Every structure is written in C-alpha cells, then in structure tokens.
Amino acid sequence: MENLEEQQYWDRQTQRARGTQMSFKFYKEIAMQLFKETQGVHVVQQMLGCEWDDETGTTEGFNNLAYDGEDFLVFDMKNTRWISPSPQGASTTLNLNYNQGHIKYMKRYYNQICIEELKEYLSYKRSTLERTVAPEVSLLQKDPSSPVVCHVTGFFPRGVMVTWQKKGEDHYDDVEWGETVPNEDGTFQTTSRLTVKDWQTEDYTCVVQHKSLEKDIVKRVIDWEIRRNQDIETRGYSPDGNPEGSGPSMGVIIGCVVGVLLLALTVVGVVVWKKRGAGYGKTNTSGTESENSELKPAVKA
Fold first, then answer.
1. Where is this region: Disordered (predicted)?
2. Domain assignment of residue 282, given as a range
C-alpha cells in the first residue's frame, strides 16, 4: 500500500476517518437520548464492508451499528433500507430511510465502490496470497522408546495434510495430530505423533501433502532418518513435539502475532477476502464519560 498509493489516497482516508469520528460522537449522543441515559461510559461500534466471490462474481455488503454491545441499526442490503432490532431505533430508521439520496449512495457504495476498492487491495496482495512455499519435513524423537514425531515446517499457505502409513496402507491407530501454528516468517508448522513400539520392525512412513509440492514428501521411519536430542534444532520444537529450547516459545510467538493483529484492527481495520461472522461484546456502562471510550469502526471488505 505504501509503495503503490499516492499521497492523495492517504489524505482521503484521513478525512474519511475524521468524518467517522464525528459521526460516532453524533451516534452516541442520539443513542443516549433514545435510551434515556445522561451519563456513564457508552460504546458505539460499527461493522461494515463488502464481500466478493471471485469465482461466481456475486457481491454482498453489510453495515451494522451497535450500542453498548447490542445491535442498534442494520442496513438491509436485499431491500435497501435500514432496520432496527431495538425499539429505541425505530425513529432513527424512519429518518434514514426517508433520505433517498443517502439510500442510493449506500446501494452504490456496496455494489460498486467497495467492490472496486476490494479488488484493488487484492491486486496489491496477490503475490502474497497466491505464493507457495514447500514444507521441510523431519522425524523427531526424544529417545528410542519415545513417540516418533513428524515435524512439518516452513510451508505456505496454511493447508497441509499429514498422514501415517504402515506397509503402504493408511494408519490411524496411535496417531495424534498437532495444531497448525505460525512461524515468525509468516509460514506455518505442524506436527503429528506416532506412538508405537514396533516402528523398528514394521514399515512406517509419514506422508505430507501440500499445494506447493508436485509429489508427496514421504519420510520412512528408520533409525538414520530420525533426529534426536543431541543433534536437533527445530525452530522451538523439541523431539517430543512440545515447544521448548533457547528461542522464544510458540506460545509467546502466537501471543505476539495475535497482539499485533488486534492492534491493527483497532487502528486501521482489516480488509478480508471473505466476510466472517462477528458479534458485539457487552460494555460496562458505569463510570464517567470519556472521549477515549469510543471505538473506531473496523472496516471489512
């Protein structure tokens, strides 16, 4: 975005954000009057955006406002009108629906402007969204009597299939699959654990399938393929599949990633390809009025 957009874009977005801030103050004051409240901390939230299916070409839009964690105003895209799940919002919907200029703009924004912006943003990100990185696969074991762990790391996109086979046939007994978690470089890693005592005498293999691979990666469970404590470095994973070692733990890494994402949502909003369901949280309405209590809208597209 920084490299591809000119200064006029950033000026326009800044003006839009300032207008939104003023609108939120207005919405909050109106809502407090309608709910007959004169003091306390109150929160107005807005969730708006658009959805585009690049396979079918269908589009969809949404714009919901909430007051103190409850839906207050909802734009009905199908019928092109505002509705309110709350009795207190009835008079507001009448005023909004009476303004036909506003309704026409809403229809144009979600069917055209928002979709064009979404397609433009996707073109900027396409090299990242469509890139593929092949996984690295290792067999790990704490000691010869411990479970054998198939550790798959460094792959992108996230989707990966890790299975076990015994003598060429799929094997599901005594198998435990781990979660897929992010690496610091934006790739992913996962593990699958096989707990059997006869791995030295039977023919076990770990099979990894991923979009980046022309053919599956197959790791045979034999002694010389397995790495153990004395010679292993696995990006924070020990031979038993648990995060440990000199580097930061995966719990810390995931916590940092989530923290950054939440900050990004608060400051600028997020453009997403597919709309995901989200609800509003309750807020504590006790206390004194504060300018900092207002939340800026999280824009989804």
1. 281-301
2. 7-130+268-299
